[in-house]
Amino acid sequence: MADLDGDGRLDMVSGSFPGEIYWFRRKPNGTFAAPEPLKAGADRLNVGRAAAVAVTDWESDGDSDLVVGNIEGQVWLVTNTGTPKQPVFGRREPLLADGKAITAERGDAGPCVADWDDDGLADVLVGGDSGAVVWYRNAGSRSAPRLAAGVTLVEAFGDHGSLAAAPKRSALRAKPAVADWNGDGRPDLLVGDFWSEGGGDSRATHGGVWVYLRKGR
User: Which residues does 185 contact at the CB level (< 8 Å), separation at least 6?
Assistant: First the structure.
């Protein structure tokens, strides 16, 4: 959810399996308008299959930019070259950490932008098909973000096949979000996941959301 056109109402922005990104404008009555595909120039913006999008003001210039992952594990930055009320998106660029393009382990990147270490700067957290969640700290500034090398917050899930019983932690296809879940003033980690049990015609698939409460400062 993000106010993409600066009208004071939170809109919905969603990725799609083909890789396009859609904008659902919030109407004054609280409902959403039909989806509009975001464009880069005259063409529809496409970041690769299974697009997972986070909206953020990346350079703190007052407008909404996009950080987007795809099924190949790539993470892209799409900068808004327009205004807070009239977004115009440019070409996608690889999001770098420690000078290297961020790639999610085993693909299926799901990025989240949040201030994980409470230093006032926006960091990036990325989940992937392996189940791992990696934190990339912003070692730059608000107007010129520079991401450091990744630190693993959640280790990869060991089993990639069907399970005999429900897992006791987040499993595969990790999609992170950050919120103060228990109201203690510290950011906590929420992780959506996927897992399956059984095989053949009896195979069942599941998904859930796990909460990892922050310890220490």
Answer: none
Q: What digits encode the pLDDT tens for the residues 68-112?
A: 999 999 999 999 999 999 999 998 999 999 999 999 999 999 999
Question: Domain ranges in the chain?
Answer: 12-212
Spatial CA neighbour of 128 closest among 147, 110, 153, 151: 110
The CA distance from 161 to 165, in Å, is: 12
Cβ–Cβ < 8 Å for 38, 89: yes
d(CA 204, CA 50): 21
CB atoms near residue 71 (< 10 Å): 18
**Which tens digits make up the pLDDT trace of 152-184?**
999 999 867 778 788 999 999 999 999 999 999
Laid out side by side, the sheet with 65-69 consists of 43-44, 39-40, 89-94, 75-80, 65-69, 52-56
- How confident is the model over 122-131, as pLDDT tens digits? 999 999 999 9
CA dist 77 and 122 (Å) reads 14
Taking a C-beta distance cutoff of 8 angstroms, is the pair 13, 55 a contact? Answer: yes
